[in-house]
Every structure is written in C-alpha cells, then in structure tokens.
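2 proteins. here.
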Amino acid sequence: MRLTNQVYGVSNDLVDTYIERNNVDEAFLSGLQKNKHIIIYGASKQGKTSLTNKHLRDTDFIKVNCSPTATTLDIYNSIVRQLNVEIIESTEITTTMGGEVKVGLKAKVRFPFFGGADAETEAAATGERETGKKYKTVDYNLALAQDLSELLKNVNFQKRVILENFHYLTEDVQKQLSIDLRIFEDYNILFIILGIWREKNRLSQFNGDLVDRVIEVPVEPWEKTDLIKIVEQGLPLLNVSFNNVVDYIIESCFDSVGVFQEICKESCYAAGYHDTQQDAREITIENVDTAIKKKLEDYSSRHTRCLESFIEQRARSSQDVPLYVPFYFVKVLFQEPIDIIIQGLKRKPLQEKIKEIHHRPDDVRPSDMGYFLKNLVSSQISKNISPPIFDFDNSTNSVKIIDSTFYFFIKNCDREDVIENLDIPDGLLNT
C-alpha cells in the first residue's frame, strides 16, 4: 500500500516515481567518480535536490543551506560545526588584501588526531589525551579556504559538501567561493553546488580557472519520454492509469517535472484516489482539469504576491524619481506570447518595448537596463521572492524564467486581470 503523495508530487523526500536519465544521472555519477566539484543547475522544482537524494546517503555528505546574508566565513563555520571539531576560543580579525578589507576568524580548534608515535608523543606532551583518544589543538583562520582544507584533512574528512541554494548568496560571496573552490580541489575537498539558473559556466565567469575543473549537470530539459516514464512507474504502485490523459498533462506543464508531478498527484486526489487502489482505475480529463484549476489557484496566489513585491520601488530621496523599470518589465512580459517568454526576452528588444510604454521614455537608457538586469536576482531575494522568478542569462543576453511554475501560471492566468490588480507604484499615480 502506497500513499498518493509518496508516489507523485513535489517533496523533500524522494518520491517513488523518480526516474534516472542518462544525460543527468550518469553525468552526476561521473562527477563523483572523477573526484571533481559538481555544479547542478536549472529552474526550480526540476529535480536538483532529488538527484543528490537518489545517489547519496546521509552519511556521504554534509549540507549547508545558503542564505542572502551568508558569508564565506558563515559557510565555513557551518562546515566545522557539523564535524567532531571543538572551537576552544576564537577571535575576529580583519586583514587588508589588495586594498580590500576582509573579516576572518582566528580560532583555536581541538579535534581527534589519528596517527602513529608522533601523535602519541604530541598528545602526551600537550595533555590532550582523553578516554583512549588523542587530540590535537591548532590555530586556524576559518575564513581561509587553505586553513579550512588543512583542518578537514587533519580530521580525515572524506565526505562531499553540498551547498544548497547557492543562488541566494550575494555576487561577491559567489565570486569568493568560486576562487576558493580551486584551493579546495588541491586538497581533494569536493563540493556539490545546487543553484537556480539556466546558463552554462556560471561559476567560471567568476573564476576562469574552474573551466574543465568542474562537472556541470543541467537538470533540464525534461523530454516527453521522461515524463511518460514517470506515470508508467507509478501505475503498479497505485494501480491508477494516466494513459488517456498523459499527453494532455504534458502539454499543460511546459516540461516542468515539478508541475507534472503535482498535476498527477492532484488528479488522483480529484478522482478520490489517495492510496493504492484494489481495482485498476483511470484518470479522466475532468480529473486533470480539476487538478489544473487547483494548481493555478496555488501558483496564482504566490506569484501575484511576488509580482507585487517585485514592482515595488521607493524613491531614495524626495528629489529622486525612480524609473520603475520592474513595473514596466512586468507589463511588457505579460504582453508577450508564451513561446517568446520560454525562449527568453532579449535585452535590446526589451528596452525598446519598455520605452514604448514608459512615462519617461527618453530617460530609459542602456545603463538603466544594465543596472536592472545585473541586480535582477539579488533584488528579488532582498524582497523575499523565493525562489526567484527571473534571471538574466549573460550567454544569451536575455531574461529567463527560472521558476518552472511561472510558465504554468502565465499561460493559464487571466493576464489582463493580473496586471489590473497589481498595485501601481506610488510614484506613478500622479504621472
């Protein structure tokens, strides 16, 4: 007997209908075997976390969930805290490197020490032997990748470090970590980085030395055959068939496995199938339509709130009059056909279309668009839009949707109604 939400849906736990894809799972396993850093990227709810859950045990890794305020020091401290390492005392220090002030943490750490006669002698000399174990006390600067690497090697660390939600970090922190990854590689301290973006070589843009030193695993696209395999795998588990409706669901989900899984789950619920059925059952078009309506309601409430936060922009001073580029961007976006939205909105045409409807068209300069696009993700994170909806892809010079549920929302919603119900920024009310 299986519950429907164990077979279908989006979950932190691995659902029963996880399927392996040669171009994704084999690339990930190859990265593990070749002892390289692995970067897993793609839109939200496309299977990044599921990929690691499938192939790694809890004992194979330690995980750090990145946040917008996290620094490299915060991340490295988290790694140390999850190990059998005791920080006896610590002092915050500042250093100047290349004219830039950096904050570090000088720490005296105590950890189990494994070795031969030398270790025995050192432990005895320092009084660091307890209950048959030998300990070593050393000073480290935990803000430095080299110091942390030496510490991890001393404690015989052989796990992977997973950085979840890497995209939440500021660009400066991402850049520093991209530099530090090269140092960690020298010590065979290997990371798995999960991020929501769609362009190749994102980290190599920060550190060109990473080219050919990392394995990149894009979790997209999901092919139609992949999605069909999901319902085929679920059939014997629930005794529920999607044969007559699977094409219809695929057309509705825009290659988003998360949306596909959720519609399958909600279709079962709409039919009254909450667990394994004794007799064979069929999902109908009516069941799917009910599921689509339910998911549209779920996604609409979230995305509408996110859009309201996204377009909000306050003047920095009484003399400052913002251009409200986010507001006009959303208006242009909602006027575009779905195929253009899927391909991405090119920078130059986007600027021209914004100027066509802007209240101050001559003031919309390339530099203003550049600032808006460069800070596209960080501005969403600062407004608690999680996961971010939009990202600027430097490789294609276009704005891409990176929340896979947004395609479903913008395709199925009443666009005019959404735009009309958005709060117009205060500064535009009198223009």
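next one coming up
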Amino acid sequence: MIPKILFTAALSFLVACAPTSIPIQHLQLSAGEAPLAQGRRPIIVLDRIDLPDYLLRDELLHRESSFSLRYDAARRWAEPLDLGIQRILGRRLESALNTQEVILFPDATSQPIDWRLRVIITHFEATAATAKIVAEGRWEQGNDDVKLVESVVFEDSLPLGSGDGEDIAKVMSELLWKFSDELAAAISERSLMPIGTKDPEQTIDVETVIETTQQ
C-alpha cells in the first residue's frame, strides 16, 4: 500500500510540474472585400518585402516603448509576415489599378513590365492602443533613354478596438489597404504622364519624390 501511495504522489507531482501548453491563436492579414480586377495593364512586379530583422518572427510584436518590444507567444502569424504583406499589397493593387498583372516575386513574366515596385517597411507593430506602419514604396520604370523613380513614403496609425488578436490583425490589414491606395494613386498619376516628365515635389498625406536620370 505504501509504495502505491508514494507512486501516486510522485506521479501527481510530475504532472503538476510539467509545462502546460499555451493555446496559440494564429493570425492572418486579409485583403478585405477588394473587387476583382478585369484589366491586363499595367504590368507590375512586386519585389520581396523588406522588413527589419526584429519583425521577421512568427510571434505578434507589441511595442511597449521606443526601447522595449514584447513578443506574444500566444499570438502568431499563420504565414511569414513579409509574404503576408506582399500578398495583401498585391491583391489590393490589382483591385485599385484594375489589373490582373501584379506579379509577386519570385514569380516572373515573359512580358515587358511597366513598373517594378520595391517596398521597405520599417515599422509594422501594435502598441497598447494603436497599430502603426511606416513604409516606403519605390516605383521604377525605364527605357533606353530615361529611368524614372518615384518614392512614396507613408506613415499612419489606427486605433485598436478590443485589442485581441483578431482585432489587431484586422487593423493592421487596414493599414496595408491605406498604404496600397497611396501606391496605386501614385502609379496611376505617373502613368498619365510621359516618361521623363518631372513634377515639383508635392506632399498630400505622403511625401512624393520624382527622380529622372538621363543615361
């Protein structure tokens, strides 16, 4: 009897000390209800999304201060964050520009492309009350004589509601929608002008810089 009691007590102790698994909520960015594109131009290649190393993790990132970050082990992205951002921007750009030809790197096309887009995101994170994005999109278009580069710098934040995982993913998706709208507006405006035309620098909600370089 005594050995059995000791065995039961030891087993209970081991069970109590065993690490308990944390229920994990997997989050995914969404492109929302963007209308399907019907057109075939412009043809755009969206390069790999550049993110700082601290964002290249599965765990959802919370910024507590300028010097402090916290990773949430219970909330994780269901796909690599750079690929999720690329997917959302590509889908929203297709809808906004009415083109089915937004090619996501590393996919390629045999057709001559109209624009190549590089996106650099320096902040994409949640705080206690908001979600924030700081990003830059660089459009490049060129021919044998002229290369045109347009840089759109975008910074915005949106308030969080409940602050749970689904709410954070929804608000961060909405930030990407707004960024893609600014990118689409910039490329639409530039597509109406002959290559080599240079406008004065203009600022609306974003900073726009046009560079033309004679080869």
